[in-house]
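User: hey, got a sec? need Inositol-tetrakisphosphate 1-kinase folded
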Amino acid sequence: MKFFCYLQSIPLVSVSCISYNCNASSTCKKKKKKKKAIDPPPPPLCLATLYRSLHGLCESRKQMARRRVGFCLSDKKRRRMNLSAFADLCAGRGIDVVEIDLSQPMGSQGPFNVIVHKLSDVIVEAEYDSQSQELLSNFQNYISAHPQTVLLDPLPAMTKLLDRFASYRIMSQLQNTVKDKSICCPPYLEINTSERSAIQAAIQSKQLSYPLICKTRVAHGSCSHEMSLIFSEVGLCDVRPPCVLQSFVNHGAVLHKVFVVGDDHFTVERPSLKNFPPGPCDRSTIFFNSHDVSKPESSSHLTALDDSMPRLPPPSNEAMVALVRHLRAELGMALFGVDVIVNIHTHTLTVIDINIFPGYEGVPQFFSSLLNYIESIMEKQEPLQPVVDPSLASTQPPSDCNETLCPAEGKTS
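Assistant: Yep! Here you go:
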């Protein structure tokens, strides 16, 4: 039987039947020994229960030998990433990919070496939805109880980037911290009022210049891609607070998407807004969706340039490396994107946005780079401790089981 293969690896000790060899004298043999009280025999061991225990032990050992990475993504993100293909790649290197279901207890889905997530929806909705609050709380409790699990990326850092007020403060510090690399961020304003005179006064105080890009404060969801280009004080009536106003920089209609994966980064060119004359002008506000102008397949009149416009040189690799290194240290994140443009007049590298766990479109090395980074984390970790089902450790036989192994008999001698 296959079952008895398991028995060979388990030392079974029987103490129920013991024989004694007495070499004492005949006088000793004639003496009547006083019987000692003995403990009652242990209950018989059910074969089915033993099999379950052994099977559970083997599964636990297998679980310890494997490395496990959990993914907590929306259905949309999972499809776009093609997670099933990434799971096949991981399997070839002895890593199990687990799709985490937040509606179920995480303890029974673990343990995990690493958890990769994009909980942007849950974080934003937790502000007003009790169910999202509970899901987020359960997730945080699991992470707190399992400090050995590495989270990509930390929740506080992601929460910060969901707020453009916070992320733009980080960007505005770049020119002070990386002075020698010609990196900057356009002047910007945090807007919490719709009063036009107050906004115009702040624009003058902060020395913003028209045209202005207006973006929502929340940097997540379909609404976050709805933006506007404001050309004068008259257009400030189109501002819908809370939002960010940022000076528009002419950049030759080219956007450089920088995708960061741990210590690696990849730069992909995308179409962007065309150049506009600097300074206020009598022009109506232009409303647009950033996806319509900066996706790989985008085709819009807003991105069209004159043929006479010379092509700008790409950003220097030295500046890109300095930018990514600084942001990684500042954010404490490994999976993020940076939107960069090059000023057509100064050729200065200008950071205009930071994105959480982007789509990595146009980066064929994404899977291999992500897997290498996950493996580099796992190499520094202790082996996983298995989660053992308590029912597998039980030695009490089920009521319907009649098979026993080595039934103990109480004997005296």
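Quick note: DSSP finds 14 helices and 16 strands in the chain. Let me know if you need anything else on Inositol-tetrakisphosphate 1-kinase.
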